[in-house]
Amino acid sequence: MGLFDKKYCDICGSKIGLLGNRKLEDGNLCKDCAKKLSPWFSERRHSTKASIQEQLNYREANREAVAAFHTTRSLGKNTKLLLDEDNRKFMVTSASNLSEANPDVLDYNQVTGCDLEIDENRSEKKRTDKDGKQVSYVPPRYEYSYNFYVTIQVNHPYFDDMRFQLNGSSVHTGETSMGAASGGWTTNRAAAGIRAGMGVTEYNEYVKMGNEIKRAVDGMRNEIRREVRAQSAPKAAVTCPWCGATTTPDASGCCEYCGGSVNG
Question: Domain map of the chain by residue range?
Fold first, then answer.
């Protein structure tokens, strides 16, 4: 087939415009079908028609999970971590209309880790000398800006992590000099703004926000781990307060003979 031959979507069958093709390993995908894929999915070019169709089936079924999702806790400002603590489910989204956005709903037991990353950018500030040239200050002066990212690692068939930015625009912490007396810079947490007293509030706000999200995600993992340990722990025989039998309580904590609650 020639470069400009008409192409058709191998999923929905519609004709694909000149700039609308999304290549698959063994076919073509229109932009409308591509929009229905998970926003965390990044392996489209290495995916087959069959695997894309499977994901679209999953995404359609995910709408029911979104409809049943009851937010009990929300963390974040622009992109948010939403928790349904009663059903032990979560989603990450910046959408206000959840039914339209159809964000992926995951179970607590799919979480494998969480990291907070602070990306520091430094630019040197220069002055114009008498000849009109840009030259460095002595000692050099720098301006710092920061972006804050959270990455949630997950066990999911279509993506391995959910990385999102906490701040909508870079946090600028002002200007500072780097001289011998300053001792230099060691980590991005030794920010110019922290030392110079500029941008401290906003910087600290996003650090706090990121740590809150990380604690919440770590809490999901710990909750599942505690449950797994409890289920695998050897069950001790007790005396049933209802029928007096020596019994090993079942998973619900009930007597294996009379069904009464052993733990009250």
Answer: 1-63, 111-231, 234-264
Q: Which residue type, as a one-letter code, is found at position 123?
A: S
How far is it, in rounded angstroms, from Cα 69 to Cα 73?
12
pLDDT tens over the chain, length 264 residues: 445 567 899 999 988 887 878 889 888 999 999 999 999 999 888 889 999 999 999 999 999 999 999 999 999 999 999 999 999 999 999 999 999 999 999 999 999 999 999 999 988 889 998 999 999 999 998 888 999 999 999 999 999 999 999 999 999 877 665 443 333 333 344 444 444 445 678 899 999 999 999 999 999 999 988 887 777 766 778 888 888 888 888 877 888 888 888 875
Say how far apart CA 191 and CA 118 lie, in whole Å: 11
Cis bond before residue 139 (omega within 30° of 0) = yes
Give the predicted TM-score (pTM) of the model. Answer: 0.77
Amino acid making up residue 178: M
